[in-house]
């Protein structure tokens, strides 16, 4: 038994080198016990990032570290809104939490660390425009720039209707302007997602045309 414990610790360390971070359930599937993980944490051989999520203490942290953590904690989730905008370098604003979309019937987890703001997307919107990015060896699903811009316009539409606030529209329009200038999205891509979302003619089209008429 004494020989088995170091072997489990070595395997846990090796797996973390390959995967970046792991949940306790993933260790258990690999035959590594909860007691081993707890012992390693007590010895400082790994860090607990959130409840049941671990990483090596000397792991290199990416600037988008919180997105990788969120992806591990909410495997079905997709980074959206301002968090996706920040990842694509289309805003200088630093979101106070990670925005993450889940499906209409997905389980909504209760997470205290890091701060994750979860929003539900409908069936027609949830699985469109998804990109996969590797952050700290973790595959993270993030909406594309064009999809994110349209999502922000749709959110802005609700803000205008319910709170009479034009801030959402202003932020989405600026993001669209920057995305076009930096060639991170094309008018055709934005138009396609806007049509799919049902906000093309009255919301996105006039703003997009105003930005491209003299381009």
From TrEMBL:
<protein>
    <submittedName>
        <fullName>Transcriptional regulator, AbiEi antitoxin, Type IV TA system</fullName>
    </submittedName>
</protein>
<feature type="domain" description="AbiEi antitoxin N-terminal">
    <location>
        <begin position="19"/>
        <end position="57"/>
    </location>
</feature>
<dbReference type="Pfam" id="PF13338">
    <property type="entry name" value="AbiEi_4"/>
</dbReference>
<dbReference type="InterPro" id="IPR025159">
    <property type="entry name" value="AbiEi_N"/>
</dbReference>
């Amino acid at each position: 038994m004494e020989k088995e414990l170091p072997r489990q610790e070595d395997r846990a360390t090796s797996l973390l080198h390959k995967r970046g971070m792991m949940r306790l359930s993933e260790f258990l599937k690999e035959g590594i016990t909860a007691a081993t993980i707890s012992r390693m944490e007590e010895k400082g051989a790994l860090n607990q990032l959130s409840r049941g999520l671990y990483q090596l203490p000397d792991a290199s942290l990416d600037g988008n570290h919180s997105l990788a953590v969120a992806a591990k904690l909410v495997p079905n989730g997709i980074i959206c809104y301002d968090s996706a905008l920040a990842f694509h370098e289309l805003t200088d604003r630093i979101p106070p939490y990670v925005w993450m979309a889940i499906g209409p019937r997905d389980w909504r987890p209760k997470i205290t660390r890091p701060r994750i703001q979860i929003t539900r997307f409908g069936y027609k919107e949830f699985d469109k425009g998804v990109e996969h990015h590797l952050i700290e060896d973790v595959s993270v699903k993030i909406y594309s720039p064009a999809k994110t811009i349209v999502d922000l316009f749709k959110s802005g539409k609700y803000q205008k209707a319910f709170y009479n606030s034009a801030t959402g529209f202003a932020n989405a329009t600026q993001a669209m302007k920057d995305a076009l200038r930096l060639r991170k999205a094309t008018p055709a891509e934005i138009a396609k997602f806007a049509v799919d979302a049902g906000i093309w003619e009255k919301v996105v089209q006039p703003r997009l045309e105003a930005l491209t008429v003299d381009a």
